[in-house]
Amino acid sequence: MKKYPLFLVFAMVFVSGCYSVPTETDLEAECFKDSDCVPASCCHSDSCVPREEAPNCEGIMCTMECRPNTMDCGQGSCKCIDNKCTAVLD
């Protein structure tokens, strides 16, 4: 029986613990942290989407009003809640 160097055994244990197979929940998840989410529209947004689905707001001009029930003027933000991008309005 061969004796393996101790560091090789530790390396194999460490590497095997670093990889995990995505679960069905992971595959359905829109987000894992708040920064994965962005406003769903360029102006007066009241909902959020995953960063990959962010609208292209290049060249879009928005009014400077603070509309109620939107994330305007810091009235809310995008949060990752239960792996879904959600607008949390203050």
Question: Can you walk through the features of this model?
Answer:
With 90 residues, the chain is an alpha+beta fold. The chain has a domain at 26-56 and 67-90. Helix content is 20%, strand content 20%. The chain has two helices and four strands. The protein has helices at 6-18, 24-28; strands spanning 37-39, 48-50, 76-81, 84-89. The strands form two sheets. The protein has a two-stranded antiparallel ribbon with strand order 1-2. A two-stranded antiparallel sheet has the order 3-4. It is elongated.
Radius of gyration: 22 Å
For the termini, the CA-CA separation is 67 Å
Low-confidence stretches: none
Q: Number of helix segments?
A: 2
Brief synopsis:
The protein has 90 residues and is an alpha+beta fold. The chain has helices at residues 6-18, 24-28; strands at 37-39, 48-50, 76-81, 84-89.
What keyword list fits this structure?
single chain; alpha+beta; 20% strand; 20% helix; 2 helices; 90 residues
Task: Summarize the helices and strands and which ones pair or pack.
Blueprint (H helix, E strand, L loop, with lengths): L5 H13 L5 H5 L8 E3 L8 E3 L25 E6 L2 E6 L1
Antiparallel strand pairs: 1-2, 3-4
